[in-house]
Structure formats: C-alpha cells, structure tokens
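Task: complex structure prediction.
Instruction: return structure tokens for all chains below.
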Amino acid sequence: MTSSSESILLLVPHVKLKKNEGELYLMSERLGWMVGNKDSFNVSHKYSDIKTQKISPEGKPKVQLQVCLHDGSATTFQFVNPSGQAEQMADRDKVKDLLQLMLPKFKRMVNKDLEEKKLFLSENPQYRQLYMDLVKSNVISAEEFWSDHATQFIKQQQETKNATQQDVGISASFLADIKPQTDGCNGGVRYLLTSDVMASIFRTYPSVKQKHLKCVPNKMTEEEFWKKFFSSHYLHRDKNINDTKDLFTDCGKQDEQVLKQDLTTAINDPLLDLTALNDIEDETSGTPSNAKINNIAHQNMIRRFNQHSILVLKASEQAAGAEPATVEAAPPKRMRLQEALTYDDLESNESNPTVQLNLCRIERYLNGPPTTVPSHAGVNKNGSSTGQAIDPNTFKSILGRWMRGGGDRYNPLDVLSSATAVTVLGELSIGGSLMRGPQPNSAIHLTSELQKELKELYVSLSEILKHFWAAFPPSTPELVQKTNRMIDALHKFNQAKLTPYEQKLIQASTSSEAENILRPLRFQLQAAIRKHSQLSERRPLPRTAVSSM
Amino acid sequence: MEDKEERIETSLVAIVIDATPAKKFASQPLDGSSMMNRIFDSLIAFGNAHLMQASHNKLAIIACNSKSTKFLYPSMDGNSRSYQNRPGQYDMFAKVDSDVRHGLGELILNDLTDNDSTKSDSLLGGAMARALCYIHRVQRELSLSHQLKPRVLVVSGSCDSALQYMTFMNVFFTAQKENVVIDCCMMDTDSGLLQQGCDITGGQYLHIPSVAGLLEYLLWVFLPSPSCRSKIVLPPPTKVDYRAACFCHHKLVDIGWVCSVCLSIFCKFSIMCTTCNTEFKLNRPAIVPAKSKKRARIE
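Output:
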C-alpha cells in the first residue's frame, strides 16, 4: 500500500475530498489521501510543500481542514465520520495537532532556503532578470536554474557551507543572570533554570555533565540534582569548604586529572619554559600560615582560570575542525630560532617574475588599413593616367607661369567660372547630389524598451547556450542528458521568447528589419540545434538511453 | 559694442596642402590654364577670404609632398622677399598670394629636380602635426583677452598611406584633445583615414565631385566656423568606416579574432598568435567549434 520506508503516524478514515470518500494518511514526511478501495494515493503533499493549514470555524455544518501549499494551490479535506459531528471534530483535531507538530520542522528548512534565494535575487539584478526570463516563461525549471545557472549563488552556498559557523560562546555572567523569583506566600526563593543555562553549565563544567548523565534519571530527580549542584562546594570551591559527603567531590579530582593530562599533551614547545612563570617565588613576607591559606586560595583561583582557558582553547580547536584538524607539530627548534631572528621586512623584496612580451612583428601595429577606397570620380581617371606622362619641362613651365601669376596678371575668372559655380551651387543646395545622407537602412532605430528587451534576450540565450556548449564533447551520459535538456530549453526559448519578440518588432518596423535584428540570435540558436542533431545522428538513441538511466 | 568681459574670438585656420598630385592636375587643361593652377589659386582665395572675415583671424598654410613639409604662410624665411600688390589690394592678401606662390612652386620644383617620387606617399601626417604645433604655439602666445578657435583644413588628392597610419592617429587624437577641429576636402580620391579624423574631431569631411569648382566648395562648406555650422544646411556627415584591418592579410574585418595578449587582430583563427607567439590553449578536441574562441567585435 504505502512504501515500507515510511511510517504511518495517523490514519483517519471517512475523509472526503471533492465529494469522494477516502482515507487520510499522515506519514513521517508527507500526508496522503486515497479513495477507500484503492492502493495508491490520489493526493499526496510533502510537509515541506505545505505553507499553512486552515480549519473551518466552530459551528459550521461541515468540518473541514485545508492545507495551503507554497505554490498557491490548496486542498480541502472534509471529515465525515458517520458517528456525528463531535467525532468529526475529534478526527480533525487529531490531524490538526499532528500537522501542527510536523509542519514547523519542515517549514524552517524550506523557508530558510527560500529566503536565501530571495535575498540573492534581490541583491543580483542580473540574475533576477535571468530568472524572470528563463523560469517565469518555463524555458527552464526553477531547480535547474538554481543548480546550473545561478553560478554565483552556488558558489555563495558552498562558501557558507565551507565556512563552519562559529559556535556561540557562553556568556560570562550566565550564573549571575539566573534571577531569583520570590514566591510571595512562602517567602522562599525560586530559581528558574532554562535549558540554555543548563547547557552553559555543562559546557563550563564538563564533569558535572558526566555526573548528570550518571545520576539524573535513576538516582535522583532533575530538581534535586541542580539543588545539590548549587549548594555544592564544587561551585564555590575557592571558598574552600570541606564537605566529604558532597556529590561533586570527585568532580574536582577528575578535573585535576584532565588538567594534568592536557598539560602533558598540549604543550610540546621546546622553547617554552613554564617554570619561568612561577608565581610563588617571592612569597617570603607575612606569617607562614596566613601565606599558606592565601596561597591555596590563589592557586585555586589560578587553577580555575587555567581550566577555563583550556576549555576555551579546546572549543576553538573543535571549531576549526572542519579544516585539516591535525595540529601541526611544533616546528623544529632551529626553524623557530630562525623565525625569531629574521624579519621579513628587512629582506630585500624580490619582484614577482614577469613574463616578457615578445613581439616579433611590431610594424604590424603601425600599418593601417590599406587604401581600398576607390575613387568614384570617373572624370579624372583619364587625366590621372596621362598625368604621369606629362613632360617635366611643360610641367615646369606651367608651374613657373603660376608662380609669377600674382599681382597685376591676376584674373578672378581663373579661380571660378560662372558655369562651374552654378553646378556646384546645385550640388550643395538641398536635394543636390552632395546633400543626400547615407543609406537609411544602415541604421535601425529601436525604441529603448525594445532595445532593453533585446539585450535581455541576448543575455538569456547566451546563458542557455553557455551551458549547452559547456557539455561538449558529451562523453558521459550526464553530459548527453544535459545537452538534451539545453536543446529543449532552446526550443522553448525560441517559442516563448524569440517569436513573440519578432512579432513585436514586425509591428514596430518592417519585417526585413526584424529579421536583420534577430539574425545573430537565430544564427546562434541554429548552430546549437544543428550541432545537436548531428550528435543524435551519430548516436542513434541518446534520448532513450538517457531516460532509462 | 564690444563687451569688455567677453574675450575676442580669434579664428585660426591652418590649411594643409597636399602637393603630391600637382603633376597629375597640371596635366589636366582647363580654360586655357591647368587644373593645378585652378586649385592653387582657389586655395589662396580661400585663405584670403578667411582673413577678410575678421581682422583678428589668423591663417597658416603648410604644404607637403612625399619628401618634405613646408610652411608657406607665415613664411619661415623672413620678410626678405618683396611682393607687389595691385592698386587697392590689401597688403596682407598680396603677401599671402606671393608667399604661397613662391613657396609652393619652390617645393614642387625641388621635388622635381630630385628623382621622381610621385609613387611614394605624401607626408600629410607630418604636415598636420606641424599645423598642430603651430596652433599650440599661437595659443600660448595669444594674449588673455583673445580666445583662439583653431581648426585644420586638409586639402588633398592622394590616397591613404598605410605606413603613416600611426602618425595620422596620433594627430587625430592630439587634435581631439586640444579641441582642434580637422576639416577635410578631398579631390579625386576618398580617404578612409581622414574620414575618421574628421569624425573624431567633429570636423567636416567632403569629397568633392568636381575639382574645377574647388573654391566654391571651400567657401560654402569650410569657411563658416565650426560653431556656426550647426545653423547652416551642410552636406550630411559621411558614414565612417571604423573597421580595423587584420594583421595577416590587411583585410578590413567586421568580426575578427583578437589575441588576448598583444591585441593583434586576425581574420582567421590560428592556434598561435603570430605577433607575440602566444599559444592559445583550448581544452577542446582538435576540431575547434566557433564558440570556444575569444570573439571580439571590432568597431
């Protein structure tokens, strides 16, 4: 009936869905409903898909429960227990209570994910645009988008995964923060221990935790244990009260042992001399007994500080455990000495090795485009060909005449004859041969809106194409599958995006212009599709082979 | 009338004359004279017309051929030469006339006495650079009450020279930086490089259909200062071809391969850049699909 891996938490018969009566199952990860005599679920919702549940108000004739899903749809179950409305209510409440218990567990997971994605999209407008273009138009699915296309998001996620979250430490004043509550009638004082405080105590005093594990369920109650703990000298041991009956006496000893062990294992630095830090050296003044008491108090204090420091150090080592956790062995003495003797800033800093750029034909940069612009003044073609043949003496005489041509011999008509002047005037007037602009079809004018849309099209298409070509050569089945997916996406893109845009363009301008504008896009699309069809010809059944995997 | 706060505008036109095609034009007879005479006379007339427009206006004329460049006006060899002016002619016009005739003739004759060099390219780039230097000098020497509006007018009839590409580009970008407008009037041939230069600096490029009417084109299109050109109906700007040439075949390419190390441009893909010997490592099989390579759109 149901898959064996799922445990059924609750089964409610007599539940109507859309006028069919059936049974409602609540399992560990989803809820399902099936018509009475079938053996598969007609409706099944994962808890993680469910946003909220709603119940019909009291006093209504129908007893109903509605689950609203994240995608906006909702399913309504009606409870129709034949034994009456009270039973129906009871059924409904059972379901409601269980759902109330289950939903928060899954909700947090989903919400966190959703929120992260939302935040990412709002922070990266280019990805938001891509999301709108590709996912909203069903070119690719949302999961694909998040897993393949939003590369930055994936990177970000991995980074957060790698960076282990730092544990929140313990507040230094957690014990002082436990506020007593006076009980008005008895004059007694009550202390409220929250689980947070308990956790803090356990972390501060690991041996207490062991004790707690040992004693609490079987030997004494929780309350007793904590009472004992707070009255114990273990907590107040710097006050040095001797009480052998105390539950926590051996805790102190245990701590001592741990401390000793840590001392021997942790410190293996040959250059570190702990005895230099001796603090009882100059203990000469004062009466011996007094000094001794002081001494013990001091020592206790110092010991507690040390213990605390060791715990803190251990915690930090654990936090760094994600990285290679092996504490590197203390470097050899020689190296340590070397380190202490040399200073990096005093060394001459060597420049980074650079690769020399080896240009072998620099003249290539200096040469411009060749003169291919042909002269279109046909009149002078003949002249120039004969021009080379002009006799140098004739040329000289012409030039000489011109050089002497100024002054009195100047004839204004030499500069411009009336006939030429009229022709030129015609050319330079509006409508003349020189006043025509360049061919109009060379520049296509798009409204800014269409331009923006075109840009978005380019971005979306190149995103899909990037993934398509990245799968080449498709040597593994996964890659083949990827090319298939991408080709599907390309086809969808063509239908859902390109064609409507072309229609818009045709409305705005002429069809030939629209074709020109979209030609590069279509070319890219065709290239991918051609490549893919070539590929599928070579491998007869890539699609089916893949889908069976 | 004159506002004391306002600085007096001084318009400086530096005309760069390309003298290489002189021989070609000399062989074309025109109304009992030759086309060359017509062109040179037109240029003198244009220069004088510019000077006539306002008393502050300045003029510089530089000529070049394939060997050298030469300042025609203001002439560099002092005031030694005498000039004769017609009765009633403004002194300065006569000086321009005489200086240009003399200097230009000398330049061409010198060229002629040497071996025939019409085959090599004219030093247009160098002449333009000299014009820019002159403009810079005038700008510095000008008193604060004057504001210089400089521009360069190139009158040429020869083809682009691929060898001077860098010079041209340097001149164009310098001019752009110095706010010097470069105008260009092309006779006979078209020049892609000068088109770019005019476009970059905001000048007017005109390829004239008939050389005989040069003066009218000059007066009509290039005499008005750039500031008032927007108010006049002028020939529309030509479509400038900014395509780059590939390094391998010197073809103009729309889309080509650009080496990611040395920025060389190629029209075909090769595994190694032939300029800097960089090997392009592609983690692809030997048959290279178009997608994997670096594509660059060259404008």
